[in-house]
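Input chain follows. Return structure tokens only.
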Amino acid sequence: MHAYHDQPRRRTVVVGGGFSGTLTATRLLQFADTPMEICLLERDDGSRYGGIAFGETGTTWDHMLNIQAGRITFGRERPEDFLEWANEEADRTGWPQRWKYHVFGVSCVVPRRIYGQYLKERLHGAAADAQPGVELTLLHGEAIDLTPRGDGFVLKYTPADPEATAATLNADHVVLATGHLEPVYRPFYHRVQGSARFVADPYAAGARAVFDALDPDAPVLIVGSALSAFDTVVSLVGAGHRGQITIVSRGGHMHGTYPADHQHDIWSVRRPPFLDDETLTAGSVVAGVRAEYLHLRETAGVGCDEGVFAERVMKAWEPYVIELLQRLPPGDVRMLLAGAAPAVEPPGGTAPAGGSPGAHLPRCGGRRTWSARRRRRPPCGEPLLRGPDAPG
């Protein structure tokens, strides 16, 4: 048999060391059974391991995951992993007092920074436990070119050191895990781009400094009402802002809030019967989701708030998503993603993905206003607002 150590070591470069890149590198370290160097290249140390959603650059301790602690484990093969890490292994030295002695349960909310730390420690743990000859290399820099060469690639990148010259890496495999692209600049941005009071990207390295320096009573306009808008409100309130915040939405959509007495929960429901059909189509999926949703509403959701019920059903169905995507023809998957979502939307609107500051305020066209002075923190020490786990 060919000896393990006699095999040539291959190199895989993962471009982007945020959430996706960290997960990719961790899985490679766990499952590589031949010699391999795994290079993880990231340009922003504040986004390393956690990316926009869980890194230090784009989040504060007030930004919360909108998924319960019992459902954010690193891998489905060990659903208890995150809770074990958080309660028994995590280094809490740098945690604020509110969380330093907190015992996490299945339905707890979790600061996104804690999850970033979890990803970091699991990555380095996988590197320590990897097979001989399987190694992790962390690189700080920005990829600027990638060209094929023979059976592999040549990656060119600029190191973070401003005095360093561009470097190259020969790689057998390259994984592009660069995350979200930078925000699109609207045509009118050039008129205000030079203003110290204009923030084009709330996750950029200098955005929090703008929030911290802002007059606490100054009115703020947020263009867009998606999850990044909620993150911006959380950042503003965390920086001490107490003035009026106006959110402008082109489509007039605003995610809902949880009821004041809401408690997170994880439901176990039956396998949706339509999945037992021999053949699935976009139409049969829409009809099946509608029928099963109504069945669960009548049997398990009596007395449950509509938004909370919808959220719990969607989360309970998550284990079946992979099967659904694998069985549907690609064209039907695209059809569902592009246009069928409203067809399966439950009565009363979509399930809340996170708390919204303006969900119960009067609506005027596509604009809602909110004053931080009108809102109290929910009970039990939960956050004022819940941001997304992913800007997605």
